[in-house]
Design brief:
Blueprint (H helix, E strand, L loop, with lengths): L1 H14 L3 H9 L13 H8 L1 H25 L7 H17 L12 H11 L3 H16 L2 H10 L1 H7 L5 H17 L1 H9 L10 H7 L1
Helix pairs in contact: 1-4, 1-5, 3-4, 4-5, 4-6, 5-6, 5-10, 7-8, 7-12, 8-10, 9-10
């Protein structure tokens, strides 16, 4: 039980190390005071450029992967399976990213951290998520919508892919619900017609418009 609680707490603290906020301190900028106010990769790209955003993504994805490894290494056979604890640690890291204890509980939305965890514990799902994300983004130009659609694809992926487990299915549901929740304001802005759109990436839309 001690290892279980310790692994989950460690994963949360790891998730609380927000890439955009840590790098922002290096350059003297709090990204939450710019753009959308979100401490994530998309806002980093919009406000501080691709180099800064790339560093943010590397940190946020990396900590998700590390959280998964923590779960795999610290599990107790008498309590949880290795994969069950790894999935739980990835979710805790995403929670830490969204509500970071080191930064006043104001962070990002957790998508990059979840992807990092998936690269370790469910890598076959990642190409499909990326494909859906790219298709929706290049069709609509909405990053939030693309992220939500990609997360929702975890649900059919959990059913269709081989070696389904209860832990994987539960993680798919939890991750999808989590991403929809953290992107709820994006949905509100979409409904109101004032969601920010990246027109330059709407390559698929322009192709079919010809």
């Amino acid at each position: 039980m001690f290892l279980l609680v310790g692994a989950l707490l460690l994963a949360y603290l790891l998730g609380s190390l927000s890439g955009s906020l840590l790098l922002g301190r290096v350059v003297g900028v709090d990204i939450r005071s710019r753009g959308s106010g979100n401490a994530g990769g998309t806002n980093a790209l919009r406000t501080l450029g691709w180099r800064f955003a790339l560093g943010v993504v590397v940190i946020d994805v990396g900590k998700g992967a590390l959280a998964a490894w923590i779960g795999l290494l610290l599990y107790s056979p008498a309590a949880w399976s290795a994969h069950a604890l790894a999935y739980a640690c990835v979710l805790m890291a995403a929670i830490g990213h969204t509500w970071p204890v080191f930064f006043g509980f104001r962070g990002g939305k957790g998508a990059g951290t979840l992807v990092g965890g998936l690269l370790v514990i469910w890598p076959l799902s990642v190409p499909w998520l990326v494909l859906v994300w790219v298709l929706v983004l290049t069709s609509t130009g909405y990053v939030g919508l693309a992220t939500i659609c990609a997360a929702l694809c975890l649900l059919p992926a959990a059913v269709w892919m081989p070696a389904e487990t209860f832990e994987r299915n539960l993680f798919a549901v939890a991750a999808a619900v989590f991403i929809v929740f953290t992107h709820r304001l994006n949905l509100v802005r979409l409904a109101a017609g004032n969601e920010h759109r990246f027109e330059r990436v709407r390559l698929l839309a322009r192709l079919f418009a010809r």
